[in-house]
Specification:
Low-confidence stretches: 15-45, 51-67
Order of helices and strands: HHHEHEHEHHHHEE
Helix content: 25-40%
CATH architecture: 3-Layer(aba) Sandwich
Largest sheet: 5 strands, mixed
CATH class: Alpha Beta
Structural class: alpha/beta
Number of domains: 1
Amino acid sequence: MPDLHRRRLVSFLGAGLCLAVPAVALAEGGPEHAEPAPRPRPKPKAKPAHAAATPAADPHAAAAPAGHAAQPAVPPEEALARLMNGNARYVDGYSVHPHGDAPRRLQVSAGQSPFAVVLACADSRVAPELIFDQGLGDLFVIRVAGNVVDDAVLASIEYAVIHLGSTLVMTLGHERCGAVKATIEALAGRGSPDDAGTRIGALAALITPAVRAVPAGTADTLDAAVSLNAAQAAAEVFAGSRPLRTRVLAGQLKIVAARYDLDDGRVTPTKTQQA
């Protein structure tokens, strides 16, 4: 797709790919995709409904050859529900830390079938496996400062969807993102002199459209830009890849944008200004 046409498509999509996520748990899939039960705690508390989990799949089940999906693809809505249910457990303090034992390590050593792709910032406080309470082989994680999309990132996402069977792509921005803040400062003429001679400007160039799209008079420019930047990344994934776009339109893939709150650990859909 020519760059000009792609940029227009990305601009048109905007927040259209930021889909609402229910606050309560959605229906889980069958036992072959279920999560392990929580471990006993010294002082057990009454667990919320979203903390319940069914037994995990047989850890000794045969895996497919390396690099290929070992199990049937998870429907996109179920994949999204798993992420949001896991985040609810994490926020409420009921993480079960599934798929982290030796049998699981052995199971996925011969092949992987991550149900979701998460494009997140490289910030040390934003670890998708932790904040979504997932384990080995569950997520295909791509992390880069500012959760931006370039050719290498897009190719990685395409690989996970086309060859590994992932049915959900989430572009995840986060509260007080340093890369977004640095871009805002640079555009205002207050860039750090320490960045001279570095490649940091390449990140800022990819984040700049989101910063410039923040409506004048917005109370919190940084937070608005964080949400817009996540939405822009989701739009870039959709516009930049014909195979992924085809899967989305066929209902086989879902692309969503979200924001992570550093303070309470909650992941929510981004809310952006409509075009």
